[in-house]
């Protein structure tokens, strides 16, 4: 019988189907960003650990410079596949593919870089935060400090109010939607600029609880019926250039239970709370959006209160 954690893992990203990993190999944005970031961070002679290696491609990137790479994967089908693929590629012999649970694994020696790509939009479903935080504790207990460099180094998350089309050939269905970041969808109308709601810095302690309450000044009339969640992974920081190497997840839009008709100038207050690694419905259940009104606001009105302005950000 599966224990509680194993049972949850089956549903929350620990056994992503093999074909999904094949699709990730064909994702040029992801591949190019990680190849560039790993090429910047990993130097000759370094030891590298990858937690959740999948097909082994990120370990392959690291092996082009590293002395040794430990690639940990829990799915036995992917362990076989990663070993097969790495044997076909230059420097694949530097990578040891280990069948183990990333929640428990500790390398036999200190490492310089830890790569962990268990990332879902809004840090939901997959166990990035839990795996890295558990690893930090084990690593410090065994080897002491300093901790290795983690990749990604940080995650920046934002939320944006939308009018989203939910009619599919005349069939109305308010569903969760995932959109590519470089494609304009005619059924998606942005009602205000995105606001940053959380920044996770893996160099320090990361709390799994993510909670936010903020406001948006609506920029155009429409029906606010969805919130778009944007997740930018800061794979590598280039201080000498004053820039970063980033990878942007697909956008995720979640329908609101109660749509709001809005006009330009309305102030909308949004609130939500969830834990990293939990399900999408857990975030959906916490979503709240309404007109921000002061004490003099009449019932059903929408007079804007004097609320702190949310931080806005550009995600390229």
TrEMBL record:
Keyword annotations from UniProtKB, A to Z: Methyltransferase, Transferase
Record bears the keyword Transferase: yes
GO molecular function, one term: methyltransferase activity
Gene3D superfamilies for this protein: Vaccinia Virus protein VP39
Coiled coil segments of this chain: none
Domain (Methyltransferase): residue spans on this chain: 48-132
GO biological process, one term: methylation
CDD domains named in the record: AdoMet_MTases
Record carries keyword Calcium: no
Cross-referenced PANTHER family: PROTEIN ARGININE N-METHYLTRANSFERASE (PTHR11006), PROTEIN ARGININE N-METHYLTRANSFERASE 3 (PTHR11006:SF53)
Protein name: Methyltransferase domain-containing protein
Organism of this sequence: Massilia niabensis
């Amino acid at each position: 019988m599966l224990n509680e954690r194993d049972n949850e893992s089956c549903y929350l990203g620990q056994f992503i189907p093999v074909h999904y990993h094949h699709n990730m190999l064909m994702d040029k944005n992801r591949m190019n960003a990680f190849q560039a970031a790993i090429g910047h961070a990993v130097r000759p002679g370094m030891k590298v650990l990858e937690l959740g290696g999948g097909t082994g491609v990120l370990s392959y990137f690291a092996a082009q410079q590293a002395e040794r790479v430990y690639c940990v994967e829990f799915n036995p089908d992917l362990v076989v596949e990663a070993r097969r693929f790495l044997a076909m590629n230059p420097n694949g012999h530097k990578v040891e593919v280990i069948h183990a649970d990333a929640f428990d694994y500790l390398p036999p020696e200190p490492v310089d870089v830890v790569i962990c790509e268990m990332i879902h939009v809004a840090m939901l479903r997959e166990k990035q935060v839990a795996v890295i935080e558990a690893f930090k504790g084990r690593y410090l207990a065994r080897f002491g400090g300093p901790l290795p460099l983690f990749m990604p180094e940080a995650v920046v998350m934002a939320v944006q109010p939308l009018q989203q089309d939910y009619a599919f050939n005349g069939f109305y269905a308010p569903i969760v939607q995932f959109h590519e970041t470089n494609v304009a969808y005619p059924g998606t109308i942005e009602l205000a600029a995105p606001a940053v709601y959380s920044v996770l810095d893996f160099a320090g302690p990361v709390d799994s609880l993510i909670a936010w309450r903020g406001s948006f000044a609506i920029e155009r009339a429409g029906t606010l019926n969805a919130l778009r969640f944007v997740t930018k992974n800061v794979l590598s920081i280039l201080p000498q250039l004053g820039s970063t190497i980033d990878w942007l997840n697909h956008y995720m839009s979640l329908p609101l239970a109660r749509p709001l008709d809005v006009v330009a100038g309305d102030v909308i207050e949004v609130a939500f709370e969830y834990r990293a690694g939990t399900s999408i419905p857990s975030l959906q259940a916490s979503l709240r959006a309404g007109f921000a009104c002061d004490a003099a606001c009449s019932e059903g009105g929408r007079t804007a209160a004097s609320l702190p302005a949310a931080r806005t950000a550009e995600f390229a």
